[in-house]
Amino acid sequence: MLVEKVINNNLVRSKNEKGQEILVMGCGLGFKKAVGEPIDKAKIEKIYTMNDRKEYDQLGEILSKMPLEYIQLTNEIVDYASVSLGKPLSSNIYLTLCDHISFALERMEKNILIKNALLLEIKRFYNHEYLIGVEALQMIYKRIGIQLPIDEAGFIALHFVNAGMDSIGIGQTQEMMKMIQNIVNIVKYHFNVELNENSIHYERFITHLKFFLKRVFADQEIDDGDEAFFTAIKNQYKKAFACVMKVYEYIRKEYGILLTNDEMMYLTIHIHRITTK
Fold first, then answer.
1. What does the alpha-carbon distance between residue 158 and residue 177 come to, in Å, rounded to a whole number?
2. How confident is the model at residue 133 (pLDDT cuts 50, 70, 90)?
3. For residues 179 and 254, what is the distance between their CA atoms, to the nearest angstrom?
4. What pLDDT is attached to residue 88?
5. How many angstroms separate the first and last alpha carbons of the chain?
6. Long-range CB pairs of 208-211, under 8 A, 24+ apart, other chains included
7. Sign of the CA dihedral with 201 first, then 170, 138, and 58 last
């Protein structure tokens, strides 16, 4: 790889073997380097490949202004999260998370604390990502020496939720959590029960809602399938289906979205399980 542009002592622009534009980061990587010179592979700590040109430019701009320690910290947290979640994350996570951590540390130094109003919902509906956020706070403390409040674990968690959902933004993720909470409340009030949030059926129900709402925000619907099967489910689980009709009306009135028969069928099955098991 050759240097195409020196951004600072630790960051240069280059191209990989496929001709894609990349950002290459490493301590002293760009020090006294000129355009056209080979990049010292021994100094490479991270290579960033962005699919979107705008994101590529934004990442270059943000990293150029960040202390190297913050960049290295972000890389460590993302690497840990990727392994923990066991799935690829959007490359945009480096852009959003590095910027967030920098701003959070700046706010902490100025004693400006922001409460996370969604912390409880994040812990309940995205517990894995939340635990990664908690671990990230420890990693920040060990490297930077600043202990961020637990609210920040929730904010960091949302970045990983978003990174695993491609086109879904953090604002939409927050709206999804609000919708999930409202749907859960509809179920609770309809059956007048407290749901066992530790049960496998509850976990599957929440997972179904997450993917259903992801499709809603991405404007993707499950096509209606077997009408006879839908009718059979509706007749077999009448109480659960009556609850689903309340969910249907909530989503229709609040968001103008009409559920397909298949979505109502799956919701009926899940609601039956969490209220009878």
1. 11
2. very high
3. 10
4. 77
5. 59
6. 208/266, 208/267, 208/270, 209/179, 209/180, 209/183, 210/125, 210/176, 210/180
7. positive
Instruction: Indicate the pTM of the whole model.
Output: 0.67
Long-range CB pairs of 169-177 (<8 Å, 24+ gap) are 170/96, 172/217, 174/118, 175/217, 176/210, 176/213, 176/214, 176/217, 177/118, 177/121, 177/122, 177/125, 177/126
Residue 136 tokens, joined: 């990230």
Two tokens at 131? 């635990």
Span 194-249, pLDDT tens digits: 988 878 778 778 877 887 777 776 665 555 556 887 888 889 899 999 999 999 99
Q: Which of 266, 265, 272 is nearest to 201 (CA)?
A: 272
Q: Specify the DSSP element, H or E, that contains 15.
A: strand 11-15
What CA–CA distance (Å, rounded) separates 3 from 82? 29
* H or E segment to which residue 144 belongs: helix 127-144
How is residue 9 written in tokens?
């002592």
How far apart (Å, rounded) are the C-alpha atoms in residues 162 and 191? 32
Residues, the chain, total? Answer: 277
- 37 in Cβ contact with 24 (< 8 Å): no
